[in-house]
Amino acid sequence: MSNQVIVSRSEIDTGASSPHHAAAPEPQSPRRFTPRKGAHLALQLLSVAAFIVLWQWLSSRHISLGLITFENIPAPSDVVPAFFGLLESPKLVAHISNSLLRVFSGFVGAAALGIALGLIVGRSRWVADILMPPLEVLRPIPGVAWIPVAILAFPSSELSMIFITFMGALFPVLLNTIHGVESVDPRLIATARSLGAKPVSIFIEVILPSATPSITTGLAIGMGTAWFCLVTAEMISGEFGIGYFTWESYSLQNYADILVGMGFIGAFGMLSSVAIKHVGKALTPWLAAQEKQH
Amino acid sequence: MNAVNQSSALAREAGVGAIAVDAVSIALGQGADRFEAVQKLNLDIPSGQFVCLLGPSGCGKSTLLGAIAGHIRATQGSVTLDGEPIKGPHPDRGLVFQHHTLFPWKKIIDNVAFGLKMKGVGKAERRRRALELVKLVGLGGFENRYPAQLSGGMQQRVEIARVLINHPRVLLMDEPFGALDALTRNMMQELLLDVWEKIRTTVVFVTHDIDEALFLADRVIVMTHRPGRLLADIPIDFPRPRHRELLTAPEFVAIKRQCLHLLHGEHAQFKQPDPLERLSPLGPSLITETQIHLSQ
Ligand SMILES: Nc1ncnc2c1ncn2[C@@H]1O[C@H](COP(=O)(O)OP(=O)(O)OP(=O)(O)O)[C@@H](O)[C@H]1O
Ligand SMILES: [Mg+2]
Asked: Is residue B146 part of a domain?
């Protein structure tokens, strides 16, 4: 699992600006279409197309490269019909809604606990000493290893699955929140205090906003890792879920369906990470203002 | 509400802001590294006076200012404001540093209004008063920008406005214009005097720049090299409002020579490179001794 702390670019940025940039450029509409943006988009689409063509060629020709072989990998021409097959399946809605529920419940729980714990641990040496050692031990344990404990600890299999996505999302959120709180500029805290701020206000007015970029980075990664754990979680499931569908296809040797399931997970994971990033941007409007200066 | 409107951002109580620094010593560092940054310093600043602190680098100016602000405790002696001992930081004593400490996530108007928010003033009222101060420091129209979108000089003006909204009894400034280019610095000095004409709070202003000290102050305090003690206390009686022509007036140049002489003497004693010499178009040979209040 990729639980490492990722520092967002804006935190490295000191925010120092040259005195010669007094007038900020007019805000540019992000939607405006320029030839340059068109070229970038074209290149990106071309890259995807080239990837698919290459895949089709490797699989349909059953290319074997020694270390890696495409003999048994379904080609795009097999996967597309399987994709439409799933689209038409009456189970599709149940698969998606079950998976979304499990991922989002786990994620929301992890976000709530991760942010709350991170804020406290980041501010208090004592709490850090008490809570961090056991958490550091739990951190490297992958989702698969949690399955037996999850089954034993939660009577409901639904809760066991949510627990696994929760564990997947928890650490990125927690560690990034701690990092964000610890890197608050002490000068800003001293300033707030001398302007009359009491501890609660310092928390709300200084520490929380200062840690927000880091927290949203943690949330975006956590959303990704929650999806990452979905197949693992839904191994427990008896009937529905995209992860379950993928796992079941493997047992039944429906290889094209495996790839369809993978595609769904990838696409949903990406979309929800993008959504989180947008929320993060909306929560930190000052960073966009800073970026225009550089 | 009307009374509030009239008193508004510019009001302050008359006759407050008298600082008494009484036999203050401040030791810094731990264990074997412990040393006195400030030693047995006496300084009385009456209400509403504009005082500049001059002294060689490392002589304890910032330390003294920190003690008045309440961030640093005096090891011996007492620092009082209007007779009350200083126990810690308080909005009554506004502090402005060389590098701004604006909240990057707050727009200019909300940075300035911060002190009022902490006092529980309602949003509309605090924004109205903050806007008044934003305009006072010449930043009308910029109130909805973020700090990163302003130049260094503008950021310092916001900083001053944010401190002034608390009606501080004392304004403490530690080389506030030190990081600005010469032209901007001149502009900021004039702006500060302009603001101070309207809000006559006591000001303690630390600077390395003799011109700046003489242009701004009612009184210039020169400190010795570490440990910081009082070397000279020079009254500056040029009439106000002051204009830039003052810098070339013969009386101004004469006092500047005295200051250079004092500071140069301090430096020669310790054989350190003299950053102040660079600032002076006059060579040390031109310096003549004249009547000044040597405090020791
Ligand atoms: N926290 C500290 N611990 C130990 N020594 C310190 C500490 N802070 C400052 N000093 C030392 O105390 C002395 C006085 O420092 P201070 O910052 O007051 O000088 P200053 O007059 O403001 O200098 P400058 O003009 O360069 O800003 C310096 O020699 C400095 O190295
Ligand atoms: Mg200093």
From this structure: no
The answer, yes or no, to whether any atom of ligand 1 lies below 6 A from the CB of B62, is yes
At A142 the pLDDT is 86
Total number of domains in chain B: 1
Are A131 and A121 within 8 A, CB to CB? yes
Strand pairing partners for A69? A64
Nearest Cβ partner of A22 from B94, B117, B150? B150
Cα-to-centroid distance, B37 and ligand 1 (Å)? 7
| Residue B135 covered by a domain | no
Q: What is the DSSP letter of A24?
A: P
Q: Is the ipTM of this complex over 0.85?
A: no
- Hey, how many other C-beta atoms are within 10 angstroms of the C-beta on A117? 20
Q: How many Å from the N-terminal Cα to the C-terminal Cα in chain A?
A: 34
Q: Is the pLDDT of residue B89 over 70?
A: yes
The CATH superfamily assigned to A75-293 is MetI-like (1.10.3720.10)
Instruction: Using pLDDT thresholds of 50, 70 and 90, give the confidence band for residue B14.
Output: low
Asked if A196 lies within 8 A of B151 by C-beta distance, the reply is no
**Cα separation of B143 and B99, whole Å?**
20
Q: Do A17 and B152 touch (CB under 8 A)?
A: yes
Q: Do A289 and B149 touch (CB under 8 A)?
A: yes
Instruction: Name residues of chain A where pLDDT drops below 50.
Output: 1-27
DSSP per residue over B11-50, as a string?
---TT---EEEEEEEEEESSGGG-EEEEEEEEEEE-TT-E
pTM of the model: 0.80
Residue B158 to residues A15, B138, B153, B155, B163, Cα–Cα distance (Å): 16, 9, 9, 5, 9
Cβ contacts of B66 within 8 Å, gap of 6 or more: B72
For residues A243 and A228, what is the distance between their CA atoms, to the nearest angstrom?
A: 10
The owner of tokens 């929380």 is A208
Secondary-structure breakdown of chain A: helix, strand, coil percentages, each rounded to the nearest 5? 75, 0, 25
B272: containing domain:
16-101+173-294
Distance B48 CA to ligand 2 centre (A): 23
- Cα gap A211→A192, rounded to integer Å: 16
How far is A63 from B205, CA to CA, in rounded Å? 78
Give ∠ CA A230-A236-A238 in degrees, rounded to 5: 110
Residue among A225, A224, A106 nearest A163 (CA): A106
Average pLDDT over every residue of B160-169: 93
Torsion over CA: A210, A214, A215, A217 (sign): positive
Residue B92 to residue B88: CA distance in whole angstroms: 11
> Tell me, what DSSP letter sits at residue A27?
P
Where along chain A do its domains lie? 36-73, 75-293
- Provide φ and ψ at B79, rounded to 5°: -115, 125
